[in-house]
Amino acid sequence: MKILVVEDEPLLRSGLEDLLRGAGHEVASAADGAAGAALGLAEPFDLVVLDLMLPKLDGLEVCRRLRQARPSLPVLMLTARGAEDDKVRGLKAGADDYLTKPFGARELLARLEALARRAGDAAAGPEVLESDGCRMDLGRCEAKRGRKAIALTPREAGLLRWLHRHRARAVPRAELLERVWAAPGDLETRTVDMTVANLRQKIERDPAEPRIVLSVKGVGYAWGGGAG
Ligand code: CA
Q1: How far is the CA of 12 from the centre of ligand 1 (A)?
Q2: Is the dihedral of CA 68, 70, 71, 76 positive or negative?
Q3: How far is the CA of 52 from the centre of ligand 1 (A)?
Q4: Which of 80, 94, 115, 133 could form a disulfide with 74 if both were Cys (CB 3.0 to 4.6 A apart)?
Q5: What is the pLDDT of residue 124?
Q6: Which residues, given as ranges, of the chain have pLDDT below 70?
Q7: What is the CATH number of domain 2-123?
Q8: What CATH number does the domain located at 127-223 have?
């Protein structure tokens, strides 16, 4: 893979470069947010490792800019220890996963592999779904009802993708955390419920109408839309 590393601490940056090159990846790095955003927009990367606290432009803003241009680019955010607010903000800005410093080499590589696998999974499925008068373009993170365009977050698109692909069954919250959030055990299952609630407000017409995302009591969620 071709990986972009944006990290201002020189020792950590060079350590990440060595580690990723050692694992067989091609690596480019930037020491501040502005340089990282410019590099990320100028060249095609498969994955981004992005520090949250950066000079010139912070990680949240870098993430937003990269996401705008390339919604499907996987981003792993690095956060300071115990900064719960940072994690939440990072995930809201569109990061796919986060890792708290200090972290081990094996954990970082495992997270990156999971992110890459998920991105690969996403590329394999159908990217446009239609249900209940709503057209969902998952690749572009956009839904449309009539002429009204609705922006989806990458996470919401991932959730729809996973539910549709496994529409023959109900999907447990824990599986959604593992496969859509790539964060088993790190986040609470309530996170899934909050994301589903937001998503329903965007794509479902009326609580009385058939639902696109079904709640399955005692299990989790299921695709309730058409097969298309
Ligand atoms: Ca930093």
Answers
A1: 9
A2: negative
A3: 6
A4: 115
A5: 62
A6: 71, 81-84, 86-88, 90, 92-93, 121-126, 183-186, 226-228
A7: 3.40.50.2300
A8: 1.10.10.10
